[in-house]
Amino acid sequence: MTVRTLIVDDDVRVADIHRGFVERVDGFAVAGVVHRGTEALQRVASDPPDLILLDIYLPDLGGLEVCRRLRAAGSLVDVIAVTAARDVETVRGAVGLGVAQYLVKPFAFATFREKLERYAAFRARAEKGGEAQQGEIDAMLGELRSSSAIPLPKGLSRETLELVERTLRDAAEPPGAVEVAEAAGLSRVTARRYLEHLVLNKRAELELRYGTGRPEHRYRWSSR
Known about the structure:
Layout: E1 3-8, H1 12-24, E2 28-34, H2 37-46, E3 51-54, H3 63-72, E4 78-83, H4 88-96, E5 101-104, H5 109-126, H6 134-142, H7 158-170, H8 177-184, H9 188-200, E6 204-209, E7 216-221
Parallel strand pairs: 1-2, 1-3, 3-4, 4-5
Antiparallel strand pairs: 6-7
Helix pairs in contact: 2-3, 7-8, 7-9, 8-9
């Protein structure tokens, strides 16, 4: 699955940076770059993308107005707001118009990648179709949650939490604390603290594997 992504930003330099970011994330491809709201509407009408990275501050139509016109025209294209707008009224308006994610400028590539990867996981679940139980719906919507929404106890950092989380998501098989520590460049004790925090907040699941000795702790990424 390749997510064709339209970038909408009035700043040519910033739009070019976002193009480079998208090209670095597996499963995503740039479908086009435009710098005005009217251009975005025309592009969606002529060649619909799968996803729009939409700035809120545009010189002709604001990002929220672009969303309104898209929805009025019957377009259900997914939108991630990528903007410097931080006021709650704008955020609330974006949510009301079906914006899937809200990314505040400036940001590092790691944060950008996390948003896109979460969106891709959500999309993969949604494209399976059919009916879903409550737990499955919660899990699907949970894919859009950011680790930044999880309150951190004293001594844990947001950057390291995201690193451990990404290591866990990328693992082919449920790893133990030792494997996570080695992959993330952390001590085993530190890795275990973050893993336990993710389990406590239902972002990871603990599996016990029994052998001849003590049960082995393994951690599986969870979107619920």
